[in-house]
Amino acid sequence: MRVAIAGAGAVGRSIAGELLENGHEVLLIDKAPTAISVERVPQAEWLLADACEITSLDEAALQRCNVVIAATGDDKVNLVVSLLAKTEYGVPRVVARVNNPKNEWLFNEAWGVDVAVSTPRLMSALVEEAVSVGDLVRLLRFSHGDANLVELTLPPESAIAGTQVGAVEWPQDTTLVTIIRGSRVLTPGAEETLEAGDELLFVAAQAREEQLEDLLSVRREDATS
């Protein structure tokens, strides 16, 4: 897979290193000469250019990329790169970094963004996830379809603790993706039994999150009392 990353700062280089280790082809783009540190990620391609300029993106052959990651420290730049990647070059997958949470609402399909990653939101979500049992925590927002990646640690008092996955009537537009049980990552087959303490990861429509939390968090007799 070919991936172009706009922004060769610490974030961009770290992403590049991970992708290269997984066997992907990576191009780093930055307009600041001081950011071009080939020796830090020698396996990557490097391009000194402004990723907001069509001529630069032509030089980068963005149409050949499977994924573009807008990872600069400037939200305006990330939005422009995302829009150009999607509308001018038809890149199938565009991931954008959100630096200021106040701008998160802009990072959507209209701007060509498939996945928006807000570092402040993600950090706060991870803190919540570490201390919360029975509360739904939003980890990641997907622009297409208004869906989110959400997590909930199943509390002992949950109505579905001890129930098989296939026997649960999940809300519409909700999919159980993974069960994390201790150090194990489980595929949620229909016969897998849910246990108290399981970390459940879902892709769910935002409109269904409250319904999902109600289903997972309390016993039925408690909900009706």
Automatic annotation (TrEMBL):
Pfam families: TrkA_C (PF02080), TrkA_N (PF02254). One of its GO terms (molecular function) is potassium ion transmembrane transporter activity. GO terms for cellular component: plasma membrane. Residues 137-218 form the RCK C-terminal domain. Keywords: Ion transport, NAD, Potassium, Potassium transport, Transport. InterPro entries: K_uptake_TrkA, NAD(P)-bd_dom_sf, RCK_C, RCK_C_sf, RCK_N, Trk_Ktr_HKT_K-transport. Residues 1-117 form the RCK N-terminal domain. The keyword Cytoplasm does not apply. This is Trk system potassium uptake protein TrkA. The lineage of its organism: Bacteria, Bacillati, Actinomycetota, Actinomycetes, Kitasatosporales.
